[in-house]
Amino acid sequence: MRDINLIVVHCAATPEGRDVSTEEIRQWHLDRGWSDIGYHYVVELDGAVGDGRDLERAGAHASGHNKKSIGVCYVGGVDANMEPKDTRTEAQKKALVELLTNLKTKFPEAEIIGHRDISEKACPSFDAKTEYEGL
């Protein structure tokens, strides 16, 4: 298993309420010439957690941090005008807590952060580092 020190929470930057599947995001990434979806997990609108890249493989989600991180993305993250907005459904919030709790059990030394904590982006459109610091 890779040495993991970060769990990075992302948003898909899709408009609030737009139902996007893990496989659709995978296809977007393949269309960009990537070898697979960049994230390890995708939390869909209904709270279903889709599998992305295998955890044994580095993701393509956080430049400079992929080797030692896990990428978790939720569908949504922007309003109808494509401005950053926390659009998580209640089902997504619950699924994220469950997924992140399970990942912290497997990787207790890993810090949960938002993509915005290591980039110049608003992603994931909420303060993941503070929200999940108790996990």
How would you characterize this protein structure?
The chain is α/β, with parallel strands linked by helices and 135 residues long. The strands form two sheets. It has a five-stranded mixed sheet. The protein has a two-stranded parallel sheet with strand order 2-6. It has three helices and seven strands; from the N terminus they run E-E-H-E-E-E-E-H-E-H. It starts with 5 loop residues before the first strand and ends with a helix. The mean pLDDT is 97.
What attributes characterize this protein structure?
Lysozyme-like, 135 residues, two-stranded parallel sheet, 3 helices, 23% helix
SSE inventory with pairings:
Blueprint: E1 6-11, E2 14-15, H1 22-31, E3 41-43, E4 49-51, E5 69-74, E6 77-78, H2 90-106, E7 111-114, H3 128-131
Parallel strand pairs: 1-5, 1-7, 2-6, 3-5
Antiparallel strand pairs: 3-4
* Percent of residues in beta strands: 15-25%
Give me the strand/helix succession: EEHEEEEHEH
**Overall geometric form:** globular
What's the main sheet like?
A: 5 strands, mixed
CATH level 1 class label: Alpha Beta
Low-confidence stretches: none
Structure at a glance:
This protein has helices at 22-31, 90-106, 128-131, and strands spanning 6-11, 14-15, 41-43, 49-51, 69-74, 77-78, 111-114. It is α/β, with parallel strands linked by helices.
